[in-house]
Amino acid sequence: MLIKEVIQYLESIAPPQYQESYDNAGLIVGNANWEITGALVCLDSTEDIVEEAIDKGCNLIIAHHPIVFKGLKRFNGKNYIERTVISAIKADIAIYAIHTNLDNMYNNGVNAMIAKRLGLEKTKILAPKKLLKKVFIFVPVKAIDKVRNSLFEAGAGHVVEKNVSYTGIGAGTKELTGEAVAKLELAFPADLLHKISFLLDDTLSKHILSYDIVAVENSLATIGSGMIGKLPRAMTNLQFLSFLKEKMNTTCIKHTAFLDRKIKKVAVCGGSGGFLLPYAIREQADIFITADYKYHEFFDADGQIIIADIGHYESEQFTNELLYGLLRQKFRNFATQITEHNTNPVQYFF
Fold first, then answer.
1. Cβ of 251: how many Cβ atoms within 10 Å?
2. Fold category of 110-127+224-310 in CATH
3. How far is Cα 270 from Cα 277, in angstroms, rounded to an integer?
4. What residue spans define the domains of the chain?
5. DSSP of 61-113
6. Which CATH superfamily includes the segment(s) 3-98+318-338?
């Protein structure tokens, strides 16, 4: 089995098109056509992780954070990034990162994992992205079912519910000798653009008259940053923070002043989510859980919400379990393991 088959599966869950512009998700080191011997799942790629992969016979490291964010001009081993990459190359170990594209998924995403651990109900994306497109296809009435079903199979019309389309019937122009023509309209996520275009230009070209694809302003409810939901029952501020420490396995929570109300509506964002605070306030969340808040940024709560910084590593640590579970469920012909190393660079003294 080839590494690229694992990559294809992971990218079916979190398409790389949905990573943020600053990100570097994807295959960073190695060859996708190598035979896979085993996969090691981790949050960060480090020299220790590479050594662990060697010891366990794994030639694929699947990390949440990319080891390389910016271009490297030299590989002299002067820092941990260069040393990690050099070690991986020397040992023929591939490093694959699945980062903000996984953050941005509603299903099987980083924030979904946090919401699940906290038992949140009626969840939704906190800041959905405008990543929808719509295709308008003119097709002879006799070919409607063929064209529509092919597009459904390709993933069009599956935005909120499955197999949704609109059909208008009219008469063709003189060039079509008055043949009855249908106008099909289907929405689809932007990452399917190439697939839908190829289908229309190739497989279905003989069945259709013309088509147009346009971007639409509607947000895609299943793609975006953060998540918000409700607790099964309201908790006092102290009750919830104790609950949060337990569920997120953290010993330290930095937070703003308590509010004179119980906590029921909870917004979350794994990693550095401070940019989502306005969305959490707009959604009337009682508390916003994220990481990497700076001193002056805590003032932005402004008495409207509680900000709770649980730490970057702590907010994303269960991503390892998420990826491990997905890979174990899909593949049985190679070993998938979770790292035994805690790669959190932040230490606490109590």
1. 10
2. 3.40.1390
3. 13
4. 3-98+318-338, 110-127+224-310, 132-218
5. EEESS-S-SS--S--SS-SHHHHHHHHHHHTT-EEEE--HHHHTBSTT-HHHH
6. NIF3 (NGG1p interacting factor 3)-like (3.40.1390.30)
User: For the domain with range 132-218, which CATH number is right: 3.30.70.120, 3.40.140.10, 3.40.50.300, 3.40.50.410?
Assistant: 3.30.70.120
Question: What is the spatial distance between Cα 15 and Cα 197, in angstroms, rounded to a whole number?
Answer: 17
Sign of CA dihedral 36, 40, 43, 47: negative
Q: What tens-digit pLDDT sequence spans the chain (350 residues)?
A: 999 999 999 999 999 988 998 999 999 999 999 999 999 999 999 999 999 999 999 999 999 999 998 888 888 999 999 999 999 999 999 999 999 999 999 999 999 999 999 999 999 999 998 778 889 999 998 888 999 999 998 888 866 556 667 777 665 554 555 678 888 998 888 878 888 999 999 888 888 888 999 988 777 788 999 999 999 999 999 999 999 999 999 999 999 999 999 999 999 999 999 999 999 999 999 999 999 999 999 999 999 999 999 999 999 999 999 999 999 999 988 999 999 999 999 998 88
Which residues face 227 on adjacent strands?
125, 268
Same fold, 3-98+318-338 and 132-218: no
Give the C-alpha distances (Å, rounded to integers) separating 92 from 66, 287, 327.
18, 45, 21
Name the amino acid, one letter, at 133. Answer: K
- Rg of the chain over Cα atoms, rounded to whole angstroms, equals 24
